[in-house]
Amino acid sequence: MAFLLAESSARCGVVQKLDTVCPTLGQPPSAVLSVTFLSIVGYVSGTSFEGKPENEVDMKRVFSIICLCASGLAAAGQEAWTMQDCIAYALEHNRSLKQQHWSLRSDRTRLTEAVTAFLPSMSAGTGVNYSFGRSLDPETNTYNTVSNFNNSYSLSLSLPLFQGGRLVQQLKMQLVQQQYGKTSMEELKDQTALSVMNAFAQVVYYRQLCTYVREKREESRLRLRQVCRQRDLGLKSTADVALIEAQYAQDDYDLTHTENLTEEAVLALKQQMNFPVGDSLAVSVGGMAEGQVEAALSASVAREEIARTYAYADGHNPTLRLSRLSLQSSCYARRQALGSFFPSVSFSAGVSSSYFRRLGEGGYDPFHRQFRNNLGEYFTFNVSLPLFERLANVMNYRRSKYQYHIAQESYARQQEQLLAQIQQAVLQRESLRKEYGQKSRQLEADSLAYHVVSRKFEEGLAGAVDLRTAAASLQSSRASLLQCRLDLFVQSRVVDYYQGVPLY
Predict the structure, then answer these.
(1) Per-residue model confidence as pLDDT tens digits over 118-154
(2) Under 8 Å CB-to-CB from 207, ≥6 apart: which residues?
(3) Which CATH architecture has domain 120-162+344-384?
(4) Where exactly are the structural domains of the chain?
(5) What pTM was computed for the model?
(6) Predicted local confidence at residue 369, as pLDDT
(7) Is 98 left (phi over 0), alpha (psi -120 to 50) or beta?
(8) Across the beta sheet with 344-358, what order do the strands follow?
């Protein structure tokens, strides 16, 4: 018993010494700045921040105080990021959005190609032929040893007149594809904003939870000091001191663990934003954990809101619009495959001329005269009717028809999923509103109970176990209410998103 008493006295002495050497332990950043500043002033003037002589201050302590002050000033000078700032940064630096941007450029080239398919194609050509040795004389039809020079020129034009409607359907498909790319960009932006919003809410939760845990640890530290003094006066037992000391150690561990979870949440937010991992990121609550919570809606009003939200989302939700555009594209693809059974009609026209002479002989007309005399023109109409293509056209049409039915089922399934998502979002929001009211009343009750148990403990009418249980219940209620409030904020934004309120 004497050994436990001595050990507890030593521990209490350590805690008191820590309070004297490092008065900023467990304090918020603003208090750290003020206390460290007063400590430096006290050291320069030869007194501590408590007004006592400072004769035992060494250089290590001075260096620690300066480092704390510098870090506090750096944290205070950093600009805090709101949720909208984080979303804007993520949209600007998202790699997938940049890839989609270049995909839109590629789709634009395909659309231009589909438009120009209606225009005529024109080509020009020329050729030079030089022959020597024995060759056939076209005049005498005999072989002679001569050298000939021949030069030809041609210009042709081709225009498709009818392709079974395939060119028209191809143009419609590319127009739909262009809209599909833009809608995909919009959907990707919305998904990025939702992911950043959820990650931001986690950071706010853990940082606010750190504040709660830090306050609880500070309270445990002050209570440990008080109990140690009461033990010295014979008002508290060694067991009470040990239990309070264990509570302080548990609170210190909880703070370290919560800070680690905060760092992990900040890292997850940086990854969603594509933010440099090595740079610091300070977030601002921005009303997420504050403000008035609306009352829960009745069941009939909630059903009306679900129907109204779905009616709007059916024509504006990017995911459903993508499914609808896929259905249109498959319909045009089926019509294009059907056009392969129809004949193709095209028009062609052209001009050609040539120049000829035997090298080493004279008596030939000059180039311009031969070019004019040998000039010829032609135009043709071509009709092509597919009779038998080894069933290639038939199989291609069947595949396109099956793809159309698949797109129909996919669109119907997407409609059902959208309705289910809206129902879940609205019902979960209303459930969180009810839970928030219940958890608020629970927090008030736990706060009152902890206050009563704390007063009883100070008067010796309650034990340390009762105090520890009441403190744990109060801390759990505060964390649960904070989580409920942030979940309610996120779900409300999701419902607003389905109703047409932009996320960014």
Answers:
(1) 999 999 999 988 877 777 665 567 777 777 788 899 9
(2) 262, 283
(3) Single Sheet (2.20)
(4) 20-77, 120-162+344-384
(5) 0.76
(6) 87
(7) alpha
(8) 121-131, 148-162, 344-358, 376-384
